[in-house]
Amino acid sequence: MFGRTLIIGFLLALLIGCQGQSALDGPSPHTLTQSGALSSPDECPNGGVELEHGFDTNSNGTLDAEEVQQTYVLCNGTDGNSSDPALSDQIEALENTLLVVQDQVETLNNALAESQTEVANLRTELEQSQGDLALAQLELDNKADLASLATVATTGSSTDLVDSSNLVTNLELTALLSSYVQLDQLATVATTGSIYDLSDADAALTANNCCQQEAILVELANYIDVDSEQDRVIFEGADIYVTDGTGTTACDGDCTGRGNLVVGYNENDGNKDRDGSHNLIVGPLHAYDSYGGFIAGYENGIMDPHTAVSGGFGNVVFGTYGSISGGLYNMVESSYGSIGGGTYNLAQGEAATVVGGEYNESKGTNTTIAGGYFNVAEEINATVTGGSYNRADGIAATVSGGFTNHAAALYSSVSGGTLNDATGAYSSITGGHSNVASGEYGTVLGGRYNDANGKGCTISGGLNNDAPGEHASVNGGYDNTANGEFGSVLGGRYNDAGGMFSVVVGGSAWQTDIELAILPPL
Hints:
By secondary structure, the chain is an alpha/beta fold. It has a domain at 2-83. The strands form seven sheets. It has an 18-stranded parallel beta sheet, with no helix packed on it. Strand 6 (189-192) and strand 7 form a beta hairpin. It is rod-shaped. The model is unreliable at 1-7, 13-29, 78-83, 149-174 and 177-199 (pLDDT under 50).
């Protein structure tokens, strides 16, 4: 009996609640229905329940007296069912009303769903309009660029550019029109549910960047001429810059390895130092560790600023401003040094030069070796101009060819021959074999085993002649000696001009210590 009472109470509460709900807002959040004891027991002889309905305005979970809006009394029958026919009719009416209310709730839910769909559609249309507006703005910007181009007029079958202060080439017009047409290809628009997106924002950004790049290409086209018939591209009226992005050409010790102009594929075996920047590189397997250089040939190296190797194989420059023009396994180890070619040559002194040859070493400052092999220029300004195994060890000394010649003293020289040795300052030997010019300003002109050991003395050929006297001379012959100052022996053998200004003219074994003597007697 009491269970049926609760069911009736629930139906009444549902009915009252439905009567107070809005089609869009739903039931009131504070509506309550509660049961309690009969306030007037005489109304129900067999007992019953009193239902109160109202709004819990103070949200305390129960209806206070002032919050009660309606009150219903349900009486019990003697067998557990209501004995009141009117109440039974009321219950049946409530049950029918419940069905009606359920239909109304379903109708309202359907209406609510339709309203939500309409809102989503409106939101989609709004977002679509915003996307169309953005594309329209981009299109407007590109049309503004088009307006700056010259007007195109068509006359007959030829199309010309009308005179304008900003004439452009057909290539420029084509490029800009191309970027305008691509507006329709910036992105694909997709609608999913209530969301309207660009399906690939990155693609749109990339397309925009492409338009900017095309604008750059339009400018670049002013300086480029393409000859497709001869496969040539010509840059005209412009300088071309290749940089590493640091803002300065120099990069001592901190080069980035970028900003180089490379011709070819720049092959690398993995063992090459390539930290240099701002270099011109032609060919494979090169090493470059600094800046401002030029390298060509095969497997060469430039390791200091402003150096150059213009050809050859295995050549390396370490000195600043050094250069190698070609050859094989040559090396410059000093500033301003240079090697023109040859094999295994070394320029070690500052501004030293090896023109060519093999295994030559230009070690002193400003020294020069013009060719030959195994030659050495040791002292400042010394020169060897060919031959082999020659040495110029004196300051500004010179060896001009020959074999195993030696110019050891200041400004001394040996011109050809073999095993000649100019050890006196300003001394010279011209050819011959095993001659010595040990005296200051001493001279030997050929011959063999001659020794110009006096100051300013001269030996002109012959064999085993000796001129120890100051300004003395021996002119040929064998085993002659000019001991006297200004003494002279003119040929012969075993002769000795020992007196000052003495003279021995030929013959054999003539000797004199007398001043101004002449032998043999006239």
